[in-house]
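Bit of a strange request maybe. I'm writing a small parser for structure token strings and I need a real example to test against, not something I typed by hand. Could someone generate the tokens for this chain?
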Amino acid sequence: MISTLLSGPAAEPVSLADMKARLRLLTTDDDRLVTTLIAAARAHLESVLSVALLSQTWRLSLEDWPTSGAIRLPIRPLRRLIALRAYGSDGVAVSVPVAGCVTVTGTAAELRLPQNLPVPGRPLGLEIEYEAGFDTPPPDLIEALTQLVRHWVENRDLVVTAGTGVVVPQAFHALTAPWAPARL
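Reply from user aminoacidic:
Good idea to test on real output. This should exercise your parser:
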């Protein structure tokens, strides 16, 4: 299973002006840095939580249809299912109707698939395209993003030598815990 981002969000969930107000930054000296950190914090938050804060288009590629008849999409929340395709050995795509395939549970999305699906004829021959993201990102996730940017701005010289993890403030974990994907 491979997830590919086809198109990212059109903007960041927090503007530079809003972030500067939240951080109480009055000059333009750090505008480029703060802009970069907003994008990095969003990407980190989305990666850790498997969420899209704003509308994004994704493609999930699979080897075969699951025997259970259901597929849990890796990025949530689901906005809409765009396309289901199975590629034959000749490279020609067979479209599968998307109507009636989606069952949404909370912010997770599970596709319930119809019977008699076309069999893929090549590796990763199944593609599911979908749009994920919140209409308005939840306030606790925006605050987590803000806390992460604040931490990085205030600790610019921090170097991590005992690992490759991203250093995050404790508040980040507390704010994102309810959104963490269940691990079995």
